[in-house]
Each structure stands twice: as structure tokens, then as C-alpha cells.
Amino acid sequence: MQHTTSAPGATRRSRLRRRSAAALVGAAALAGLAAVTTSPATAAEAPTGINWDHTWNGAGVRVYVEEHGDIISVCDTAANGHAAFVTVVDSDLNIDHYEAKVSTGKGTCVTHQASQGGRYNLHEYSNIGLTFEGEGGLGSYAVNFVNDH
């Protein structure tokens, strides 16, 4: 049987390393929790009081959709000198409905809804396509949904 002994300082250093590692893990966990639970005051917020059916994020842009009432909101999420926009098309009926553009800067939104009539009133049960972007032509995003509410 082999018996090993550590130098007196080795045990103390080992405990110190464990405590340092635990403190680092704890600090990282707290930083991650803070990032998840806090929302910056400058974040682009769509109109409140709506239970959004869909929310999509891209670089410099966030798009919200509430199918009931055909409410679509586009928000600028970056102070990058570029406007954020969304184009709305009916893919089933091949109709270009509209483009909503936010040109008032980070933290602002533009919202349209069916109650505005005409092009803002989307067809029920149609496949609605959205293309959105917020970096001045450096990359756009395309999504779709069935307008069934």
C-alpha cells in the first residue's frame, strides 16, 4: 500500500483553486441569468397589450405578427444608421400588400393592421410571406405564416 502525502501548502492551494473555480462559475451563471431576465430600456417594443402569434428577430430588426386583426409591427433594434423594414405579400394569391419601414432609429416601431383597410387587410387562410431586414442590404430574412385567425 502506497501512502502519499502532500506538501502543507498544496492542500491549501487546491482548496483555493476550487473556490476560485466555483466563484467563476457562479459569476458566469449570474451574468447569464441577468442577460435572460432583464430587457434593456432601449429595446424596440411593439405595441403592448397584444398576445403576439409570431415574433421574428434578425440583425437590426424585429417583426411581430398578431393574426387576429392582421397586426404587423416592425421594429428597429440597432443603432447602425440603417432603417428596418418588412414587406408583406400574399404568396397564395400573388399579391404584394405593403412595405413597412422604420426610419426613426433604434427602439422605434411602425405598425399596420386590418382596421386601416385596403392593402393592410390580409386574406384569411392565405400563406402570408414576410421579408425583413435591418442592416441596409447586408442580409434579409424570409418567413411565412398561414393567416388563420
Radius of gyration: 25 Å
Structural class: alpha+beta
Major sheet details: 4 strands, antiparallel
Approximate shape? globular
The number of helical elements comes to 1
The whole-number mean of residue pLDDT values reads: 78
Q: How much helix, percentage-wise, in residues?
A: 10-25%
Regions with little confidence, pLDDT below 50 for 5+ residues: 1-42
Strand content of the residues, in percent? 25-35%
Widest sheet, order of strands: 1-2-3-6
Number of extended strands: 8
Could you state the order of secondary-structure elements as H and E? HEEEEEEEE
Distance between the termini: 76 Å
Gist of the model:
Helices cover 20% and strands 33% of the residues.
Q: Which key phrases capture this entry?
A:
alpha+beta, 4-stranded antiparallel beta sheet, disordered N terminus, 8 strands, globular, about 150 residues
Describe the structure.
The chain is of the alpha+beta class and 149 residues long. Helix content is 20%, strand content 33%. It has one helix at 8-37, and strands spanning 54-58, 61-66, 71-76, 84-90, 95-102, 109-112, 127-133, 141-146. It has a four-stranded antiparallel beta sheet with strand order 1-2-3-6, with no helix packed on it. Strands 5-4-7-8 form a four-stranded antiparallel beta sheet, with no helix packed on it. It is globular, with a radius of gyration of 25 Å. The termini are far apart. Residues 1-42 have low confidence and may be disordered.
